[in-house]
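Example record

The entry below shows one chain as it appears in the dataset: sequence first, then structure tokens.
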Amino acid sequence: MNFMRFRYLYFVFSLCFLLPGFMCLALFGLKPSIDFTGGSMLEIKIEKNTQQNSLSQSDLQKVVGPSYELVSVQHNASDQVTLRGKPITNEQKNTIMANLQKGIGQVKELQFQTVGPLLGRELLQKTLVAGAVVVMIIILYIWNQFHDLKYGVAAVLAMCHDAGIVISVFAVLGKIWNVEVDVLFVTALLTILSFSVHDTIIVFDRVRETVKKHSNVPFVDIVNSAVLQTLGRSINNSMTIIIMLSTLVLLGGETIRWFAVALLVGAITGTYSSTFTAAPLLLLWDDVRAWLKKRNRK
């Protein structure tokens, strides 16, 4: 089966997801958590109240008072609630706990932390720098191993394809369900980049070995052969990860659910991109190089 005959259709298919996603990202943006914006997080356990799941953000805002402007309320378990809002001091937190005791019953503090806006900006800057460093190292490493720049560029473009889809999905989720991006999202994103490159290198390694053995065979046939040889292994390997992550999404706790969702989307797109984005990009690189040589001759 000649998969590479339809390589330009694969680019169109990817654009059908990327373009709407980037439009949503431009219009709505991501919804940052207090990890990036700065704020206070108070996690409590409601010990003597059987209706805590019915407590909405507006209900809790009335209870805690105006000193703690809530940004989000997350019900982690049957008796645990996480409140996120503007930065407050430890004294204000004690007052809020007293208000909660009066308003909804016996409450126990599980965790309290405050992140300043300065630390949030520093974390965002470090995240962007880390991403740029990872991209450069991957390009240089793959270039060195495969002795051709096109392998490094194709792998990084496929990796950016996966990251772009995940970020776009969370832009939509943030608009619809107020899903926030936090440090766990950054962790998931970096993990996705690693998974994507790992799968892509397997395909590229098969291409390199085939080129050495059959240098007289057209490159498009070599790439198609490499895809056919690795596709089954890639799908089987990815399905085990997808099944596990799907279980975490459905049965895992609220605190890791969106982390698992990010990994699940990344695993699916990574499986697709290693075969139907990275491999066609190798051929596109040669097509562009041949077109440029032909143009220079004229």
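Notes for this example: The chain has ten helices and four strands. The two ends are 37 Å apart (CA to CA).
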